[in-house]
Each structure stands twice: as structure tokens, then as C-alpha cells.
Amino acid sequence: MNRTLFLLPLMMLIILSGFFGWSLLSGRDPASIGSVMVGRPAPPLPFADALLKSGKPVLVNFFASWCTPCLAEHPLFTRLKEREGATIIGIAWKDKPEATRAWLARLGDPFAQVGFDQDGKLALDWGLSGVPETYLIDARGIVRLHFRGPLTERDLAAILPLLRGGS
Amino acid sequence: MTPFRRYAPPSPADGGRHEFLAFPRLRGKVPEGRKGVFSIFLALLLLTLPALAVEPSEMLKDSALEARAREIGRALRCVVCQNQAIDDSNAEVAHDMRRAVRERLAAGDNDEAVMAFMTARYGDYVLLKPPFKAGTLVLWLGGPLVLLVAGGALMLAARKRRAPEPPVPLTEEERARVDSLLRPRPSVEPHDHEKSAPEWRAPSA
Fold first, then answer.
1. From the list B93, B97, B123, which residue is nearest A130 (CB)?
2. pLDDT at A65
3. B69 and B114 share one domain
4. Which domains does chain A have, with CATH numbers?
5. pTM of the prediction?
6. Rg of chain B's alpha carbons, rounded to an integer?
7. What is the CATH classification number for the domain harbouring B104?
8. What is the ipTM, given to two decimal places?
9. Is-contact B10 B28, C-beta < 8 A?
10. Per residue in B13-48, pLDDT tens?
């Protein structure tokens, strides 16, 4: 009994290394705060209610002209619109309308409709933590995906089946 | 400068007064008549509070409602700053959340309804004190459990130590040796040089 006690520190080291290794390799994001929006009906979007209830899957993207990650994900939305015919609603968060318009004129406008949330009140109803964030609303108006941060190529694997399946 | 020095009693050269021992460089710098004021100033520095991010323009006119908003703001976590209450955060979202809290309160919501408003949008993550439920059992009970297990192990170990095995009785041979060692030895007069050593004292008995 006493001799096996000597192994205790070693066992603890192994357990700790195992946990740290798993944390590093499992792809778990400790900074992720999750989302309670997924699985719920989409919150109201006064300026684009008709689009939300059109019976087609819709992407809702919160962005701002001052936001660099938004610039990075912008070409992906252009592609989704042109190649997949996706309906994308853009909401400019805490941005001046003229700055937003200039930004879209410069980069191209992939959005079916653009709304403005200058005081961030609308964003709060969507559980937004910042820009960019993107939601996928299915044909029945239920939020199916919620991405915090810029959309990347890798996220398309989750988006495309839902986008194609519903149309 | 050396802020901490050993206490030195006031010397007559200093006028017999305790002079800013903690800050030697200030010695003689503060005029005689201002010392009281200066001491009060130093004492007031101890009373400062951490700065709030709540801006005056956000505050409610109704001080009772504002106090409730502060109470709630301290319990809500800013969703982009890991471990900071919305009242302490300058993040845009924290500002919006503070405003929403005040709007809900002004609309007549009670504190629970305001918390529910936030958890409906941001989940339990937004609560700095997570609720007690199946998903948070480890969080709530893990600490006490480790304490119990460790405490139990320590108590077991202590009990084992308290009841040592009874010693093996000595054999005849060992007893004889112990007796011989413990028997008082014939007293021996010290040598002369030992007598002159200052630590030597004559045996009292």
C-alpha cells in the first residue's frame, strides 16, 4: 500500500498531461461562449421580416465597415450569393450608414437587404457579442447555425447542406 | 527610495517628532502646518474605489432604480471579456447590455425578469454566478468534494499515526544493558584546566 503511494504524483502528472493534451488537440475552443439562439425561432428583424418569412433559408450577417474580420469574410458572402444564390441579409452594427454604403460600393454588395443597427439594440435581441457574426435561418424560420467571428472556408461544410436542402 | 524602514525612535535632532519614516524623501518637504492635511490626503487614498465603466450619461435619474441596475450589472458577465462584469467593462456590448438593463428596469421589470431577459439572449454564460443544475454540478460540488476526500484521507492518516503498534518487550539481555547505561556513574573530579574554564561550575549536589 505504502509503496504504491509513491506512484500517486506520477499518476497525477499523467492525468494532467492527458487533460492538457486533450484540450490542445480536440479543437475545443475555451473562449467559445456558445449560443442559445440555435434551435429557436429567429428574433424579429423589422426591416427584413418578409425575407425572413419567405420560406427559404436565409443567412443573416452582422458586420461593420470599421471591422477588419468583416473585410476578410466578405468575399465568401459574394461567392455564396453568386454560386449558391443564397439570400443574405446584412446588418451594419454601430456603423454610420454613409460609411457602410461606401464600404459596400467599394467591395460589392452581396446582401439582399441591408439594415442598420446603430445603437446595438437589435443586436442584443440576437444575442450578438460583436461583429462579425453570422446566423443561418432555415425555411421554417428557425436559427440553425450561429457563427461568432468571421466565416471561413471551413464553415461552408456546415452551411451548404442547410442552404441547399431548404431551397 | 526605501519605503519601508525599521522604526527609529524620534531623535532630539528631529525635534523629537516622528517624521515620515515611511517616506524619507518627504522629510522636511511638507510644511509644518500642512502635515495634518497631508496625512488626511494619504489616508483618503486608501478609500478609493475601483473605477466603474458605467458612464454618467447611462445612469438613471431614479437613484433606487440605478442602485438595482448596479446590483444586476455586477452579476452579469460581459460576453467578450471572459471574466468581467458589464459594469466594469468598456466593451461596446457591455455598454449596450447596461443600457438594456436600465430600460428593462425603467419599464417595470423586477430583477429576475431582467436576468431572464439576458439569459434568453446570451445563455447562462452571461451570469457571473452560474445556476445550480445538472450541467454545473461539477463546478459547484467539485471543490467541496475534493476538500472532503482530501480531509478524509488526512484524517485516516492521522488516526493511523496516533495508534502506533505497542513496542516489543525487551529481552533480558537488552534490559541488563539499559540498566547498566542508566546506572549513575561514579562522580569524577574535573581536571584543573576544566575548573579554570569560565563555564565550569561545581556540582551543586
1. B93
2. 95
3. yes
4. 37-165 (3.40.30.10)
5. 0.68
6. 36
7. 1.10.8.640
8. 0.82
9. no
10. 555 555 555 666 666 677 777 778 888 888 888 877
